[in-house]
């Protein structure tokens, strides 16, 4: 995703307005975001302390950011951005804005319904995970405690610690699998 967004930032995206400066800047931001997510996941996978993983990375970045002038505000703003991205992802999925990217003429009615369900369910699940991670970063800024910042794995562990933990994690996992299936369908039927 990071490489794809980088290519769109450098060369422009397909479709109307894909070469506009605003579209390129948005894709550059997405490249940075996905690059950070990829870095966090790779750090987690290759870490000799897999129990810490991206949580340790998040805490390190958060503690360094909190030490900066206005660091608390910067961390809080970053958390609000991640929270907003999560809410935006979920809202766009629920509003089915992905329809504009689909070549519906190549899809049967049944395939359209399946892709619709996959897109909404998977998108909302992905948005919830991002929003929860953003909430943890905001809490770290408000409490001035880098230890409360959580990466993706820490967010999922925190969800597991709730009374409905195993069921909630199973739903999130199912939602993310559904998003993966939607991504495959989108690759197949995307308007290019």
TrEMBL record:
Membrane-spanning parts: 31-50, 70-94, 115-144, 164-187
InterPro entries: DUF1206 (IPR009597)
Keywords linked to the UniProt accession: Membrane, Transmembrane, Transmembrane helix
Domain DUF1206: start-end pairs: 28-96, 122-190
Pfam (any one): DUF1206
Annotated protein name in UniProt: DUF1206 domain-containing protein
Organism: Streptomyces pharetrae CZA14
Lineage: Bacteria, Bacillati, Actinomycetota, Actinomycetes, Kitasatosporales
């Amino acid at each position: 995703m990071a490489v794809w967004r980088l290519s769109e930032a450098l060369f422009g995206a397909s479709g109307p307005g894909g070469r506009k400066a605003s579209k390129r800047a948005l894709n550059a931001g997405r490249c940075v975001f996905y690059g950070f997510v990829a870095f966090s996941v790779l750090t987690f996978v290759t870490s000799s302390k897999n129990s810490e993983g991206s949580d340790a990375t998040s805490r390190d970045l958060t503690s360094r950011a909190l030490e900066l002038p206005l660091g608390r505000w910067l961390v809080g703003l970053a958390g609000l951005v991640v929270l907003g991205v999560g809410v935006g992802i979920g809202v766009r999925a629920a509003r089915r804005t992905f329809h504009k990217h689909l070549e519906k003429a190549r899809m049967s009615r049944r395939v359209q319904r399946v892709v619709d369900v996959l897109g909404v369910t998977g998108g909302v699940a992905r948005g919830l995970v991002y929003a929860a991670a953003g909430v943890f970063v905001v809490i770290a800024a408000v409490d001035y405690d880098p230890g409360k910042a959580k990466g993706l794995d820490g967010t999922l562990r925190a969800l597991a610690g709730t009374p409905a933990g195993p069921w909630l994690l199973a739903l999130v996992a199912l939602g993310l699998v559904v998003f993966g299936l939607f991504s495959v369908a989108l690759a197949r039927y995307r308007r290019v």
